[in-house]
Amino acid sequence: MIRCLVFVLLTTVTALGTQIPSPSIPSDQARLVTFNKDVLPILQNNCQVCHRPGDVAPMSFLTYESTRPWAKAIKAAVLSKQMPPWFADPHYGEFRNAPKLTQADINTLAAWADSGAREGDPGDKPSAAQWVKGWRIQPDIIVSMPEPYHVQAKGAGEIKEFFIPSPFKEDTWVTSIEIRPGDPSVVHHVIVQVPEQNARKGFAWGAQNCETCPLAAVQNAVFVAGPGRTDDRGPQSPQGGSYSGPEAKIRERLTGRGAFTTMEAVYAPGSPPLDFRFHNSAKLIRGGKQIRIEVHYTPNGKETADQTMIGFTLAKAPAERRFIIMAPESLVDARKSIPAGEANWETSGELTFTEPAELVWFMPHMHLRGKDMTFRLIYPNGREETVLSARFNFQWQLGYEAEDPIKVPKGTRMIVTAHYDNSANNPSNPNPGKDAIWGELTSQEMMLPWFGVVVNRDAQPDMIAFYQPGGFDRRDLPALPVPGTVGRFRLPTPPFIGGAPRLQVVQPAILRELK
Predict the structure, then answer these.
(1) What DSSP element (H or E) covers 377?
(2) What is the DSSP string of 306-357?
(3) C-alpha distances in angstroms, 28 versus 25, 78, 115, 282, 354?
(4) Can you give the pLDDT at residue 14?
(5) From the centroid of its chain, how far is CA 248?
(6) Is the pLDDT of residue 515 over 60?
(7) How confident is the model at residue 270 (pLDDT cuts 50, 70, 90)?
(8) Residue 476 pLDDT
(9) Of 332, 351, 363, nearest to 444 (Cα)?
């Protein structure tokens, strides 16, 4: 994917221009650098995908007149590696969507700014790039938010969810998905899901009228982490955003098998459509289920409205290889908050692949204190390989598409390590004087290593990999009495390589609740 030069913090970038020295460039070269001959081709190849009218960037780089005022800012951004937005350590992995801006290109942009940012001979100008207006995948099916959502000019960012009827009446293979915001300037990210189950009506986490129901009894016991310790999260809201509801969390704590979020596609500024044909695969969209669209809005000083759309291209035949996004929810121990003042706090989690797969896509997700995330594989033969190590930027939550599929045998372990800055030196830290807890609010923290795999078409998504929830220890769990009976849960022992057992419960009613 071609990455764009979008200047989010203009004053900071401009200041950098006075602090970063230009590379050593011969004076005769600097005198010859012009916009039409040297700079415009670089902008066409790297920047105009976003820097054009109607797209996410706040300024256009299509013409000399619109680009000239930003010459010094461009120089500062490319010399400091702030732009194009790309955070993967070049020592690990190769990615097909890495930006193509070379050191020679950087030198040219700096020399142009230093030599007066001249326009040059109109005859040297290349033909204008032909940017596709609208859809990039020519979708067969388009769905949309039911109506435009009004975004205020000012205020805190907000995450909204919209449910729409699915156009797919039966299970359908799709070859690509494109998410197209109505107003990209206020859309921070979009997640598209087809949840396996709709939220159970009437479910109330901790509701006063449910003290005697089986699930409430389980809930009360599950949130006791051990003798003398309690889970300080307490009962959680059933409005779980993109993530599993409370019943799944109960199942995690009782079985030791971590939950995975279902996701069909993700959008972040500058990201391309997800095209599964690159890996000779397709995505299976379950029929007859609602489509959930989650949109994170960030006001930009101007009132606007957004009506995000999603386009799908259909496979001509059932696929033999299936693309699945894996989103483990609970790798981190949510009882261990990030201490106030810690500038490089580390946490990690581990997954085990229980079926062979091909790793093809990664997307770290953290919040304002996130610094970096690393994905490391340990193969069954003992060989170790770091497949991605990337700095994290909340403003640019990038996906990384592997140049070639990474073949992962059954039994391979994936270690994910992340670092956080909860100190006052982090300008994005919303409250450096307090411990940071884990949660879905932007002011809280997350450690979500999303990754995409290609597997056999018959593979079951929840059986591809296994992990224990962070901090899980089955020895801490007491036997849980069923209200009104002497029945008790019998906990299976993880890991469940080769199949996840059902939670065995004496009381059939609870078994139905927890399946």
Answers:
(1) strand 370-378
(2) E--EEEEEE-SS--SEEEEEEEES--S-TTSPBPTT-SSEEEEEEEEESS-E
(3) 8, 22, 10, 53, 61
(4) 38
(5) 21
(6) no
(7) low
(8) 54
(9) 332
